[in-house]
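Milestone M4 deliverable, item 7.
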Amino acid sequence: PFLRLLEAQLQDQRREHEEEVEALKNQVDAMKEEMEKQQQAFLQTLQLSPEAQVEFGLQQEITRLTNENLDLKELLEKLEKNEKKLKKQLKIYMKKVQDFEASQAMVPAERRWHERNMQAAVQRKEKDFQGMLEYYKEDEPLLIRNLIT
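Output delivered:
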């Protein structure tokens, strides 16, 4: 059951990440198309405008494109950061799965002791605190004891 839960969580996170990446790729493509349309319209305007308007138009377009490029770079950095976070979570989950599989071969009393140590070690490694904690009702005394100590 624990292994299946972890696998389901991993699959859900992977699916959400892939959907988010696909949506962002579509957004980038739409922005590129819009930029090309505006550039074509701008080039047509250049042929009809006096020299001062052309220079002013160029400055505006350069400013707009620079801002758009900065927004796209920021978006890319955000996606790369999210990817690193997801890879780190995947490693943590894979470690939990390996530890869980290894603990299945142990004696029940030994296994319970190992799970407590594993939980404490994993909690120390994770630095991304969200302010909420999900736990099973039967683990409440252990959780309270760990919080106090």
